[in-house]
């Protein structure tokens, strides 16, 4: 589904003592980069706010004058898009994922768009997908009615649109970082036992510019077999070699996910054979 993305990265961040909120890090990655990763397949991505380094190329826009509110910022970003479908996000969503983005885009196929409804039942107009034509129409009407978009709340816009609600996605997808406590909570959650590996793998893939499904269980099983069957340091060395072999196979035309699975299988079988030999020798020495 072809769409453009607008990420609102302005605002005074008063409850963060004026810090550059989009640049604050959760899990070693800037909040803005985490949001940009969730919409990596957007045809055009426009970030509305002050220019700053980003992990992938974007276009930049700024409301005129700066600091006149989210509706004026949305209008500035919308002027740089051409797709019929526009994803609109705030820049402080550390747990936004691609599945939630896809659910919003799918939900926007009917009516004027779809916005996320958080677990508390609140609508999130800055985690939403909109049809561009009605969005432009209503923004123009509001500007004519009020003389300016400055200071107008987003609800003045969403109240005039026929929007569906998307719920039941990742429960933290709408969690935003407005305060230092929010930031601390996000940083703690990302290290929770049940999710830390997935979060870490996602961060490493982004850092290394790798877009590859990772079968975490297969790799962990391989590391376990190498550590137990050979020696503990064999675990990281073996997984590194599996990655190298998979990259070489991909360069030769193989499917990358299948290449990882095949290399993992071969290395795991080798580790098990290695362990079986050691066990057989131990039994032999014991009987002798």
Give the strand order, joined by hyphens, for the main sheet: 5-4-1-6-8-7-9
- Report strand %: 5-15%
Query: Can you give the mean pLDDT?
Result: 89
Helix/sheet category = alpha/beta
**Secondary-structure element order, N to C:** EEEHEEHEHEEHHEHHHHH
Which descriptor suits the 3D outline? elongated
User: Biggest sheet, in brief?
Assistant: 7 strands, mixed
Distance between the termini: 69 Å
Number of strands: 9
Over all CA atoms, what is the radius of gyration? 24 Å
Keywords: Cytoplasm, GTP-binding, Magnesium, Metal-binding, Molybdenum cofactor biosynthesis, Nucleotide-binding, Nucleotidyltransferase, Transferase
GO biological process, one term: Mo-molybdopterin cofactor biosynthetic process
Domain DUF6457: 193-278
Organism: Streptomyces xanthophaeus
Descriptive overview:
- The protein is of the alpha/beta class and 288 residues long.
- 46% of the residues lie in helices and 14% in strands.
- It contains 10 helices and 9 strands.
- Helix 8 (216-229) packs across helix 9 (234-251).
- It is elongated and about 95 Å long.
Brief summary of the model shown:
By secondary structure, the protein is of the alpha/beta class. It contains 10 helices and 9 strands.
Task: Furnish the topology, listing elements before pairings.
Blueprint: E1 4-8, E2 25-26, E3 29-30, H1 31-38, E4 45-48, E5 59-61, H2 70-78, E6 85-90, H3 98-107, E7 113-117, E8 123-131, H4 132-146, H5 155-158, E9 163-166, H6 180-189, H7 196-208, H8 216-229, H9 234-251, H10 256-287
Parallel strand pairs: 1-4, 1-6, 4-5, 7-9
Antiparallel strand pairs: 2-3, 6-8, 7-8
Protein name: Molybdenum cofactor guanylyltransferase
GO molecular function, one term: metal ion binding
Domain DUF6457: 193-278
């Amino acid at each position: 589904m072809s769409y453009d993305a607008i990420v609102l990265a302005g605002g005074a961040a008063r409850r963060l003592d004026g810090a550059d909120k989009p640049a604050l890090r959760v899990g070693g990655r800037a909040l803005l980069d985490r949001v940009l990763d969730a919409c990596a397949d957007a045809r055009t991505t426009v970030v509305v706010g002050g220019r700053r380094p980003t992990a992938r190329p974007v276009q930049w826009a700024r409301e005129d004058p700066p600091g006149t509110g989210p509706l004026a910022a949305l209008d500035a970003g919308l002027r740089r898009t051409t797709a019929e479908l526009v994803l609109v996000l705030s820049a402080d969503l550390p747990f936004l994922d691609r599945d939630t983005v896809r659910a919003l885009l799918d939900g926007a196929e009917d009516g004027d768009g779809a916005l996320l409804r958080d677990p508390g039942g609140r609508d999130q107009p800055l985690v939403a997908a909109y049809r561009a034509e009605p969005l432009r129409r209503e923004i123009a009407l509001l500007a004519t009615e009020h003389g300016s978009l400055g200071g107008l709340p987003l609800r003045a816009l969403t109240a005039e649109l026929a929007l569906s609600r998307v719920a039941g996605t990742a429960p933290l997808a709408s969690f935003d970082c407005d305060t230092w406590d929010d930031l601390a909570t996000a940083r703690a959650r990302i290290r929770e036992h049940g999710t830390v590996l997935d979060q870490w793998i996602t961060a490493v893939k982004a850092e290394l510019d790798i877009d590859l499904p990772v079968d975490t269980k297969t790799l962990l099983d391989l590391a376990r077999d190498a550590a137990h069957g050979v020696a503990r340091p064999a675990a990281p060395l073996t997984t590194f070699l599996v990655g190298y072999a998979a990259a070489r196979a991909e360069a030769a035309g193989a499917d990358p996910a299948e290449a990882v699975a095949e290399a993992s299988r071969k290395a795991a079988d080798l580790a098990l054979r290695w362990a079986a030999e050691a066990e057989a020798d131990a039994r032999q020495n014991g009987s002798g």
